[in-house]
Design goal:
Strand order of the largest sheet: 3-2-1-4-5-7-6
Shape: globular
Radius of gyration: 22 Å
Structural class: alpha/beta
CATH superfamily: Vaccinia Virus protein VP39
CATH class: Alpha Beta
Number of domains: 1
Number of strands: 7
Helix content: 25-40%
Length: about 300
């Protein structure tokens, strides 16, 4: 029997906090950037997509862009908050990113913007997406990763250690590029590509950053979070440390968001295949006009 993936996030709490943000007026500048960039990347792909699915992207912005730019005649949205949204979308289904409602080979395109970093079973979600794609179907997603919010993580850890004598998880862990590339391969994607785009946002105070995270519905929903209310002294000390360590010369504070881009194709016989080892017709040393030096191996002794 397969082991269950570790439960990092309280998914019910995530949904409640996103709903709170929607009702208060969401902060969506980061999502708007990711959605626009995703659409531009799709324009570079010379392919027609009949049926597309937007998996977990908060709000309708990405789906609206896909329809307006005629990148796919049919765009299906997957959102666990669908019953509570008044988006007017007819093709919006209530489902979790970890339990997709699509039959195998039913999609030509699967996209996602700023959602998959917050699932508990990312490997399982990627496998489901790959299976839902038709042969030679494309998966393209943006998610937070790398060193996102490293400044906030460091400042909270230092403040809690100083004020409370211990550290609790405040900022979610993010996957790095190498791990994500390996996950794409394990999920069975062909021609996997992973790259990153760092967005630096600047604030007057660290508390302004926290307000934006609340407006994104992205405050702490870790299962292992401390359940006691955050002490005012710890919060204020965190803001002081943040200002001491991450202030730019003009006095404003920087916050880093690494948007990691994932892309891969459902396997198809028409796709390029890597050459067999030893099948090259020319030596690299000849192309570089250098001398090839053979490294002695223990087997030669």
């Amino acid at each position: 029997m397969a082991e269950s993936p570790p439960r990092l996030f309280d998914r019910s709490l995530q949904r409640l906090r996103r709903l709170r943000a929607l009702r208060a007026g969401p902060v969506d500048f980061l999502l708007a950037h990711a959605a626009q960039e995703l659409v531009e990347r799709l324009f570079a792909v010379k392919r027609d997509f009949a049926v597309a699915a937007d998996i977990g992207t908060p709000g309708p912005a990405l789906r609206t862009m896909l329809r307006q730019q005629q990148l796919a005649p049919v765009v299906i949205g997957v959102d666990p908050l669908a019953p509570m949204l008044d988006s007017g979308e007819s093709l919006l289904v209530a489902a979790d990113e970890e339990a997709l409602p699509f039959a195998d080979g039913s999609l030509d395109l699967a996209v996602s913007a700023l959602a998959l970093h917050a699932v508990n079973d990312l490997p399982g979600a990627l496998v489901q997406i790959r299976r839902a794609l038709r042969p030679d179907g494309l998966f393209l997603a943006a998610m937070l990763g790398g060193e996102s919010l490293t400044e906030l993580r460091q400042s909270f850890a230092a403040a809690e250690a100083e004020i409370e004598g211990g550290v609790s998880p405040r900022v979610a862990p993010f996957a790095d590029l190498r791990d994500l590339g390996a996950l794409l391969q394990r999920a069975g994607f062909a021609l996997p590509v992973v790259d990153t785009d760092r967005i630096t946002v600047r604030y007057t105070t660290a508390l302004d950053l926290l307000r934006d995270l609340r407006g994104m519905g992205a405050t702490n929903a870790l299962v292992e979070r401390r359940r006691l209310p955050l002490k005012r002294a710890t919060l204020l000390r965190m803001a002081e440390i943040y200002a001491e360590r991450f202030r730019d010369p003009d006095g404003r504070l920087r916050a880093s968001f690494d948007i990691v881009w994932l892309s891969g194709w459902a396997p198809h016989e028409s796709q390029q295949k890597p050459l067999r080892p030893g099948s090259a017709q020319a030596r690299l040393s000849d192309a570089l006009r250098t001398v090839e030096v053979r490294v002695k191996d223990e087997a030669d002794d």
